[in-house]
């Protein structure tokens, strides 16, 4: 007998007169348990859901041969748009299967991946995503809804929004250094020792497109960094001979990834070290319509780098920050904070600079101990920094520091940031954090010499 058996006559305690007086009330029998709700609530499920069909029935109680406890979870989701706390007692995959039966998986996805449920001060490790083979992750990329792709060795493993493993595919790379999710099923991937940027369908395991930069020397072009806006895909290329570099811009709305233009084309001559530094981090700043491109180089005189902001319309750099004293080990940009952030390679401290100063002389403000700036100990080597909302996350070895803005004044100097060492994010073995990324209401963390990905969520609202 199918789960949805149509209906049976009204009985025991229900009369047509009472139903008529409350014509908006719908009663459903799920697995022998009666539920009452409104037609409006059921219609929240969408026109293709069986619950929407039930809302159109009159004068009968439909019977559905399914788990009543799970139905109560989904009914609460329809009523409030959020999962109730008792949902934590169920396996997420069981709820996914149940939501697919009722046709409300999209509501479960939106609730489970809602960024507003990300509580940075209350994160704890909720899940481990194992990877096949012995290779540690070399790149990780997420989507807004919380699906994630992980590159490890020559493979890419994909997990959907519910963190169920979808696929593991082999690529042509010996190792992937840069990767960006363009959709839950498509990634852009490249390596510093393999020519070309590959657009890969990870669900079917094939290369849709290979993009190359034709440099003056006609040598191959390796990928140093990848970024994207809603309209464009940005790729930092370096010639295989390492004597030229540029940033290529491709049209994302074009299935063939039509090249739009190139910016920051540098040919290296003699001792011009600045021109020898390709961008390894590309970040789009939507509120300013600018592309941040950052790269650094370690040489005899120490670590040097530059951060440039490019106007795509003119193709010109409108602001440049040259890093000489305490160059960044990593840097990022935050639209929410209207700021550039870096972690110093020598000091290991977090610095912030106001984006509203574009075009002016740059001034970094140290959020920690400014006395460490010139100590030369490279305490920040290998550290990573990212922003999520108005929070700043910085990895230091096996730990993650969280910087949160608690007061906003008229300038960066008037801002107050509080540091919270996320002790629960500390690895008991001291394994160094190599990557971390954010998707939906989750934080994904990888560590050196570990063949898995840690999933961190709010212990209050996480699933």
UniProtKB/TrEMBL annotation:
Pathway: Protein modification; protein ubiquitination. Residues 24-119 form the BTB domain. SUPFAM superfamilies: POZ domain, YVTN repeat-like/Quinoprotein amine dehydrogenase. InterPro entries: BACURD1-3, Beta_prop_At2g24240, BTB/POZ_dom, Quino_amine_DH_bsu, SKP1/BTB/POZ_sf, T1-type_BTB, WD40/YVTN_repeat-like_dom_sf. It comes from the Eukaryota. It holds the Pfam family Beta_prop_At2g24240. This is BTB domain-containing protein. The lineage of its organism: Eukaryota, Viridiplantae, Streptophyta, Embryophyta, Tracheophyta.
